[in-house]
Amino acid sequence: MLIGARGLRRPPQTDRARIGAFGALLVTAAFTLTTYVLSSIGSRGQTWWLLALVALIVAAAAILHQSTAAEPLIPRSLWRNRTIVVGNVATFVAGMVFQVSIWYFLTYLLQHRLGLAPALTGLAFLPLTLTMLVINTWVTPHLIERYSPRKIATIGALVSAVGLTAPAVLSTAYPLLVIFVPALIIGIGAGLFHTPLAGLVTTGVTPAAAGAASGMMNTAKQFGGAIGLALLAAGTAGPSDRSAFVLMAGLMLIAAVLVMVTPSPQPSRTPER
Asked: Among 102, 90, 74, 106, which residue's Cα sits nearest to residue 221?
């Protein structure tokens, strides 16, 4: 064990970036408070306005701290990269749909409108999951070799939007249609969308900033999921409301527009600071 520890010992790295604990705490608090406030819209009276004010103050403090910090959580050069910024906004919008919301509302669709038991509801997710897996694993990589990631992701977002409208318009008198038609269309769209967009927002950065670019993308995705569920749940009449699927389709149309206006990635030739 001592020999192994000696062999694994490395010389100290003096140029390693440090993570500011205070900045990370501020950003986390801002995200948490914002999500909580949005999920409580219209339900807490004056208390809600107070929480909203606190969330706004904390968010402003986080932005001010990160704009002046010597070692910000996200290198400032990434914020100056329009491809990364616009692409992450598209990631955030798509995360509002795919990260949590779609599974939440599909669960209520299958259990409340179709009357499926929990076990059958889980099995009913398989067509969507398998379609996404097949498209993302075997189809999308071949398409990326021939077409631009932006074009593929745009088509994927549009196809997803079409699929998301299906649960809102299909009659529950035909359960198999309600299960399989949206699953196939949404699965194809999602399989075409996510990988090309991930490539757009992580291409062209230096190796030193690769981790930050990836973290930025995943934060946009996860925060989008939390915000999306909070807004959709608060803004619809009920969890099985058809309007939720219409709103999710609208969000994917917005994501399609954002992907279309995302600039092509440019190789970075300067240090990411």
From this structure: 90
